[in-house]
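Why do we care about 3D structure at all? Because function follows from shape, and shape follows, mostly, from sequence. That is the central idea of this module. The next example makes it concrete: a single protein chain, its amino acid sequence, and then its structure expressed as tokens.
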Amino acid sequence: MKKIIFLDVDGTLVDYEGRIPTSAAAAVRRARSLGHRVYICTGRSAAEIYPELWSIGLDGMIGGNGSYVEDHGRVVMHRLITYEQCVRVVEWLHGRGMEFYLESNNGLFASERFEEAALPAIRLYSKRKSGEELSTVRAAFPHMVFGGELYRDDLNKISFLLRDYQDYLDAKAAFPDLQAGTWGGKGEEALFGDLGVKDIDKAAAVKVLVNDLGADLKDTIAFGDAKVDIPMLVCCGYGVAMGNGGAEIRAAADLVTGAVEDDGLYQAFEQLGLLD
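And the structure:
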């Protein structure tokens, strides 16, 4: 039976320095040559899916943590934050002196002082994930737009720098019409908050795509490394956690494979019979 495979990107398909292990690319290409479908399912927007990712051979993507679904270049679903919601969030963040960036399929758009303010968080995030610190914000976001328009109608998500956990709690209370989350650490250790389309997550988007394909969830396999991936692993017929993932996702998975940098993706594809 051919499978539909959903891969988180950062920490799953790509290591925390943005590199695709050669073995991971080989696994994707081999699985697709055998008739399996492979989609990325990521918090990234389409503007952050760079040519080297597409070049390994993908059937499509789920982006924005579920707000955007694409199959072979065809848009299956795209739910956006409204212009009015964007204006309210941007003005609220400005009023609190908080830095942020707007996530769109057309690009990432940084607030006025994001590049300087976010550097300590970006360094800590990269050190937590890979043991090495990124030297600049531009190294983490190579195509980020600085000085761009901040009132927009094309947004999937808005990420903002947390000064403390209360900023996330206040954002959640201030915008009940949006989906609030955090990333870059668990609970009080989170480095960023985000606001996205209400009631959207990776699992909901997987169901939309599988239904569009006329397929069955029992024939799906999900791979991830973070708490945000757990609904996707639970939703799919089989869930795989990367060895570099946290305790929560490892507990939720049917299989725990090796770390991303230790050929974990290839090992799992091989173990699950996706390469022969």
